[in-house]
Amino acid sequence: MDQKKKYSPFDHATHNLKAHELLKKSEIKFSDWEVTTAFYASLKFIEGSLFPDTFKHPKEDEQRHYESYNDYKGEYNRFVGGTPHSCMKYFVNQNTPANIQTFYSEIYDVCHNARYKNYQVKEGDLKIAKDALESIRIYCVENQK
């Protein structure tokens, strides 16, 4: 009997990273998808590496234990609403060092532009995505719970 492996955001991040690396090596350029896979790898590294842990409650001035990012997101949405992306931005801004906050904001903006405004990504934006992904990945691996 084939048993499904339990979902792991960190494994999902690694999967997205592999897709990102494959796109970078491709002779056919899909710069928009390079940026997109870099962003989603970054997001999943954060989601999969920093939990379980104790974080400031999104609305109250207290610390609470969260087993997973989904638990945190449930609290966040219940108290302040917003989109899943606004929740992750809030989490990153409240719970990671300033340099990771900057990298996450930059890769979010580059990805949003590539996905919704202009799929023709500039070389500089590819570098931003590459640098942000690598910095976030290293931070998450070093701080994995």
Characterize the structure shown:
The structure is a single chain. With 145 residues, the protein is mainly alpha-helical. Helix content is 68%, strand content 6%. It has one domain. Helix 1 runs antiparallel to helix 2 (31-49) and helix 5 (98-116) packs across helix 6. The two termini are 31 Å apart. The model has no long low-confidence stretch (mean pLDDT 92).
Order of strands, main sheet, comes to 1-2
- Gyration radius from CA atoms, angstroms: 16 Å
The helix fraction, in percent, is 55-70%
- Per DSSP E runs of 2 or more residues, the count of β-strands stands at 2
Give the SSE map.
Layout: H1 9-25, H2 31-49, E1 53-56, E2 63-66, H3 69-80, H4 84-95, H5 98-116, H6 123-142
Antiparallel strand pairs: 1-2
Descriptive tags:
single chain, 145 residues, mainly alpha, two-stranded antiparallel sheet, globular
Give a quick precis of the structure.
The chain has 145 residues and is mainly α.
